[in-house]
Amino acid sequence: MNQEILKSKQEIVAKIAESLKDCGSMTIVEYRGLTVAQISELKKSLKAVGSSFAVYKNTLFTRASNELGYSELDQYLSGSNAYVFSKELNAGPKVLAKFAKRNENLVIKAGLAEGKVLDAAGVKTLATLPDKNGLLSMFLSCLNAPIQKFAATVKAVADSKN
Predict the structure, then answer these.
(1) Is the pTM of this model over 0.90?
(2) Could you count the other beta carbons within 10 Å of the beta carbon of residue 20?
(3) Nearest residue to 34 (alpha-carbon basis) of 118, 115, 102, 111
(4) How does pLDDT run across 131-145, given as a tens digit for each residue?
(5) Statement to judge: residues 15 and 76 lie in one domain
(6) How many structural domains comprise the chain?
(7) Residue 108 and residue 2: Cα distance in Å, rounded?
(8) Which domain holds residue 40?
């Protein structure tokens, strides 16, 4: 094999491995049957939430994932696959799940979240979870509720004295 080709393939494998290390989650989707316009729309939606859409040869992705110890992903690497890398844990899966409801040609196959391999059902479950801001909002409302109840009780006692 030509040394230049071998070197370029090694660079691609290194790039995939780096993307896998840096992402909060990664999702494997089959995009066969989507039009160019639909793929462009999907890429635009993913970019808006800080996720990226990439197509790699399955063999190169297999090498990178096996280097990092994710050999369980090998069973999902057949056909026309695209890989969505998300910085936020569920940003990419949310966009993909919403897009897949409208376009049956986009098939969510599997994913990776916080070092764990997920099947399609796991990725769809991940998509239903609230994002970081939603979780912070829930947490703050839990902290705020007892204080509000205490203030309302003190006010009620003060009003009853008057």
Answers:
(1) no
(2) 20
(3) 102
(4) 777 777 777 777 777
(5) yes
(6) 2
(7) 35
(8) 3-129
